[in-house]
Amino acid sequence: MIGAGVVGTGTAWHLAEQGHQVLIADPSLADPVPESSTGRDLNGTTASLGVLMGHAFRRSSGRAWRLRQRSMALWPGWIKRLNHPDTPLQLQTPLIQLVGSADEAARLRQLAASRPESGLQFVENDQLPRAKPDWPQPGYGSMRSEHDGRVDPLQLLKALRRALSRAGVDQLPIRIKHLERLSGERQGWQLHSQNGQAHKVESVVICTALGSQGLLQPLGHDRPMDAVLGQVLDLAIDRIPDDWASWPAVLTCAGINLIRHSGNRLWLGATLEPGETVDPSAIERMRSLEGLAPEWLQDAELIGQWHGLRARPRERPAPLLETLEPGLLLASGHYRNGVLLTPATAEWVEEQIDNATITSP
Fold it and tell me: Do 203 and 235 fall into the same domain?
C-alpha cells in the first residue's frame, strides 16, 4: 500500500482484517496525526472536514451512486469497530442543504419523494426551524438528510493508525520512488524507496493522489490529475444563543459547508479553486456565502485558516479505481470524496486482490 491518507490507511486496515499481510509506506507515518489542521503541511485528509454526503446525491444510478451507497452502508460498522476510548469516533448527523433556486427546490422535492427510506426530507421555506444563530436564507427551503453528516478526519486517521498497529500492519515512514516489475520465479513487484531500500510485494495499491502519476508514468500508464484547492476558515462567533439550537452537524449553503465546533467556533469550507495558489477573492466569496451570509457571520472573528490540495482526475470520472496490470491497482483521485468513499474503495481493492488470487494458476 503506497499512501497513508484515509483512503490508504483505511484500505490497509480492511485488508489486514480480511487476513492479508499488508505493508503501507508513506513519509507521513514518521509523525503523529496532528491535533488540528491549522498551520500544518496538509494533504487531502488532514485538510478535510470529513463531510459524508452519500444519500443526498442527485443521481440514482451509475458507479458514483453505487460507491456512495455502499460506503454509507459500511460506515456505521467501520465506526463501531474503530471506536475506542483512546481514539473516540462517531458519525455526526444530520446534514441540511439550503436550497438556492426554484429549479433546485423542484429537483430536491422529487428526490426526497423518491427515496423516503434514505432519510431524506424536503422542508419548505416557511417551515424551516428557528435556528440560533439564524441560518443563511436563500429562500427556497432545505433538504434534510438524516443519515448524512461528517466524521472527524483527524480522529478517523488516529483510529486507523491505532488499528493498523493492532493488526500487525508493517508501517514504513518512507517515500516510494519507483516501482519495478518482477518476472519469472520472482513475480510480483519491488518497491524502491528514496533512501535506497527495496521491498518485494505480490501486489501494489497506489493511493497517493497527486503523487500517483509519478509512479505510474514510468510503467507506461498515464493517469494525470489536476490539483484543486480546498479552503477552510475557522471563525469565532461573538455570542451563541441557545447553544446552536436547531443546527445540524453539517449545514451547506451555496456549495459551502458550515460546521459548528468547540462552543462558539464555526468552520467554513469548500473545494473552490483549480491550481495550488490561494485566491483571496475566492476566500472572500466563500466567507460571504456568495452574498447570503447573515450579519453574525460577517462579524465573526477569523481565528485561523488552512487549505489542502484535492486530486481531480483529468478527463476521467473520480475516483480512479483500476487494475492497471496484474498486481498493480490504482485507488486514487477521489477529489472531494476521499473520506466518504474510503469503505467502498477498500472493499473494491479487496475484491480485486481476492479475485486475482482465485484466478492465478
Answer: no
SS3 158: helix
Query: pTM to 2 decimals?
Result: 0.95
Contacts of 247 (CB under 8 A, 6+ apart): 131, 260
Using a 10 angstrom Cβ sphere, with 0-12 exposed, 13-18 middle and 19 or more buried, the burial of residue 325 is exposed
pLDDT digits (tens, 9 = 90+) for 336-348: 999 999 999 999 9
Q: Are 49 and 232 in contact, with CB atoms under 8 Å apart?
A: yes
Collect all residues with Cβ–Cβ distance below 8 Å to 123 and sequence separation of at least 6. 141, 142, 143, 144
Output the domain CATH number for residue 306: 3.30.9.10
Considering its fold, how many domains does the chain have in total? Answer: 2
Question: Which grid cell is 2?
Answer: 503506497
Q: 51-102: per-residue pLDDT in tens?
A: 999 999 988 889 999 999 999 999 999 999 999 999 999 999 999 999 999 9
pLDDT at residue 38 in the model: 65
Q: Are residues 196 and 297 in the same domain?
A: no
Strands 204-206 and 198-201, bridge-based pairing: unpaired
Tell me the C-alpha distance between 306 and 240, whole Å.
Answer: 24
Helices (H) and strands (E) in the chain, counts: 8, 18
219 & 324 share domain: yes
Same domain assignment for residues 157 and 303 = no
Residue 197 in any domain: the answer is: yes
**How many C-beta neighbours within 10 Å does residue 66 have?**
12
Sort residue 209 into left (φ over 0), alpha (ψ -120 to 50) or beta: left
Local structure of 23: helix, strand or coil: strand
1 in a domain, yes or no? Answer: no
Same domain, yes or no: 158 and 300: no
DSSP sequence for 235-261: EE-S--GGGTBT--SEEEETTEEEEEE
| 11: enclosing H helix or E strand | helix 6-17
Asked whether 207 and 332 are in contact (CB, 8 A), the reply is yes
CATH of the domain at 180: 3.50.50.60
Residue the block writes with cell 467556533: 265
Residue 326 structural domain? 6-82+153-224+315-359
Beta bridge partners of 312: 226
